[in-house]
Amino acid sequence: MTASETLVATGNRAHSHGPGSPVPLQARSERPTSYDVADFPVPNGREEEWRFTPVKALKALFADEPGTEIPKVDASGPDGVVIETVAADSLKVGRPQDRTAAVAWTHAAEAVAVRIPVEAELTEPVHVNVAGLGARGFSHLIVDAGRHSRAIVIIDHTGAGELGSNVEIVVGDGADLRVVSIQQGDHESIHLAQHDALVGRDAKLHHVVVTLGGKVVRVNTNVRYAGPGGDADLVGVYFAESGQHHEHRLFVDHEATHCKSNVLYKGALAGDNARSVWIGDVLIRAAAEGTDTFELNRNLVLTDGARADSVPNLEIETGEIEGAGHASATGRFDDEQLFYLQARGIPEDAARRLVVSGFFNDIIGKIGVPEVAEHLHEVIEEKLARTAELSTSAKAVIGQ
């Protein structure tokens, strides 16, 4: 019985997102993938994969046309690391899963490849900066970690304009690779990305997504396993302010035996129309015996007018697993925590900052790169200061 047949057999035939828009409930693994842009119609916002996304703001990145600029990509690393420019189709880890990824694949003629030699143990991170220059552009990045290597790669997205990007990651057998992708474009920038990772036998991938800037940011992360014993640790941190849309979608495809995955994403929202979306899909195929997986998403809403959507999904095709679970929650400040801190003489604004810092502390500790963790703490403090100003202004208006 196919996954779709299973859904129908259990009574899950279809659901609707409004009049005239029936949406079949489709198994995650059965959604179309293609390198051909024509295989993906221009989204209208009623599709399952686009229903949370402000598609009207993305028209430029839906157009099957070359970019009007080439984003500036600078990469540097310690001795031994090979950084080169190659054809974009020189490595195919995963196929585009939506129209924007296919457009970016088609119109990014070249890719920057970062290659970690076999058995290399890097003592310093590799740094890659992808800067938008104010117009529409596409980028393609390859990170290839050789067998039994250990490395950290930091990808920093900055600048302005509209960027469509693809990142392909290969973790060789027995390798340990940490990839940190930071999205901090200016407040009007748009960034749509697809990350595809292939984790080798007994290999470890730490994939970290930090989203702080941008008007619309949508990062799709997909993980597959090339052999048994693979381990993927997927961590995300985001803080959306007024007018920002931060969207993170994950698909972990367990197709090999005795592999692990752990997903932990946390976000905060403050200001009118601050929006976050988190979709976590995990598929355990029939052959993936011994799988151990868990996914968790937590959201903290700091002001009125902000909204967080969180949808965890599990598809399990075998009962011979170690464990599988998911959890999701969205809430406001814990009044008891605030009362406890204020009762001990801590002002309300400071108490709120302490609560938010505590909310993020465990996940920041998992990033594993001190320079990124320190920067994240600083940006969160800046955002909290702006949130406090908004709260003070709102109280002043109410008091008039």
TrEMBL record:
Could you tell me which NCBIfam families the record lists for this protein? sufD
Matches recorded under SUPFAM superfamilies: Stabilizer of iron transporter SufD
Query: Where in this protein does the record put region Disordered?
Result: 1-42
Name the source's superkingdom: Bacteria
GO terms for biological process? Answer: iron-sulfur cluster assembly
Tell me which species this is from: Kribbella turkmenica
Q: Which Pfam families match?
A: SUFBD_core (PF01458)
In this chain the SUF system FeS cluster assembly SufBD core domain maps to 137-359
Record family assignment = Belongs to the iron-sulfur cluster assembly SufBD family.
Name under which the protein is recorded: Fe-S cluster assembly protein SufD
Coiled-coil intervals in this record? none
Q: What is the lineage of its organism?
A: Bacteria, Bacillati, Actinomycetota, Actinomycetes, Propionibacteriales
